[in-house]
Fold:
Amino acid sequence: MARNIFLSFHQTDELEASIWKKRFGQYFNEIRSLGLSEFGEDFAEHIESGDSDYVMRKIREDKITGTSCTVVLIGQCTWARRYVDWEIAATLRNFSDSQQGGLIGVQLPRALEHSWSRLPPRLELNLQKVEGKEVGYARFYPPAPSDGTIAQWVEDAVARRDSMNPATGSTSDLMVNSRTCP
Structure:
């Protein structure tokens, strides 16, 4: 079953994210992502005002509702971007009009080349291992191979979404400002 997914990434990885969308688009009905210009000035003002409930609701309503899973593309500074934090929180929060989504992190090829693997804290919170076995709500993967493996990773995330809950604290204490990244 082809799914709709939401793609979260740091703006410095926009080119790689665009390539990723083209490369893996065939495995999904739709790949959505957030471009702030799509929401206009009012949306940007609310983001700057710090009205995080409004921002998460708008992200959820306009982009994440109707998707099954959020795929976080991991680059050098993904962990530092507050919008990535908010997109993950919006994915994991239950809203009256939609259930929470599945969650995976996928390292970008350039990040692998440079050994960048620092994860957004909210994603990392949902990764858990017991005796070396992954048991958490989310998973973190190396760059996806060219075959349909990415679709299977999303299916696995949806199965986890349907059978377990995100880690406690997954939707609270939002990042107020982006962090400094080298």
